[in-house]
Task: inverse folding
């Protein structure tokens, strides 16, 4: 499933490899790879692969989920699509509370003790989605885990999730994207060693 999903992201042109001119992540890290899962939304065929993959993960790992909450903004459409298809309530969590109206950070009803699954599009260090999960807990939900489309498989993220006490799983990841890119001729097989060295250095 990881390779199939990685190929769907590549087909949707949502994964970019540019070792000669690295991208700058929001954290300031200079990276030879960049994943923009928003582009999947404009590609119905590959979007279907991703959404079906997410739902398969949810059914396999979190069948007890009673509601899906996406992270703002990129996790929202995937929580909505999966929530609709699975007949589950959905909502979303902002990065911070609004400065007007009801000053909500969480949009959607959270019931006390409700088993909630957080849907994220991408995990790098894990900081933003962990913050969202904590906000849901503070609102009274029981956060049973986090499901993302893509993970960079950084040790920092694994450590952060372990410290916060949240489970997480990803549909596909950095390693699978590198393998799929080499298989499809997007990158040369010898580029994988460089990419892995970059990831392991973080």
Result:
């Amino acid at each position: 499933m990881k390779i199939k999903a990685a190929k769907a992201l590549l087909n949707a042109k949502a994964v970019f490899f540019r070792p000669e001119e690295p991208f700058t992540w929001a954290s300031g890290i200079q990276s030879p790879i960049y994943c923009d899962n928003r582009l999947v939304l404009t590609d119905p065929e590959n979007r279907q692969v991703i959404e079906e993959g997410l739902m398969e993960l949810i059914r396999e790992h979190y069948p007890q989920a009673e509601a899906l909450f996406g992270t703002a903004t990129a996790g929202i459409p995937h929580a909505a699509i999966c929530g609709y298809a699975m007949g589950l309530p959905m909502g979303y969590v902002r990065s911070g509370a609004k400065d007007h109206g009801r000053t909500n950070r969480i949009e959607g009803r959270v019931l006390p003790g409700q088993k909630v699954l957080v849907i994220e599009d991408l995990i790098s260090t894990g900081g933003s989605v962990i913050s969202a999960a904590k906000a849901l807990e503070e609102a009274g939900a029981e956060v049973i885990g986090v499901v993302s489309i893509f993970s960079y498989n950084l040790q920092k993220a694994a450590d952060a999730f372990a410290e916060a006490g949240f489970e997480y799983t990803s549909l596909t990841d950095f390693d699978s994207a590198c393998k799929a890119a080499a298989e499809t001729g997007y990158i040369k097989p010898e580029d994988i060693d460089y990419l892995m060295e970059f990831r392991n250095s973080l």
